[in-house]
Amino acid sequence: ENTNLKDILFLGDFKHIFSHIEWHMKAYLIKVDSYDKGILVTKDQLFQEYSFPTAYLKILKKTTTNVAVNY
Asked: Which of 31, 40, 39 is nearest to 4 (CA)?
């Protein structure tokens, strides 16, 4: 389990409303030198091959880098 932290970037505040519940979320992008768990996918692969709750899509669309996916 070797993960070397490079940087933490604040992506912004996000709000998601569904039914009668309102979520207020803060999103961060954590950059690492290496990642031993899961797989690393491109942003295009992420949207084509994986499904995410609507609440997280705004955050994912704001990222410009590859994303690690655990499953």
From this structure: 31
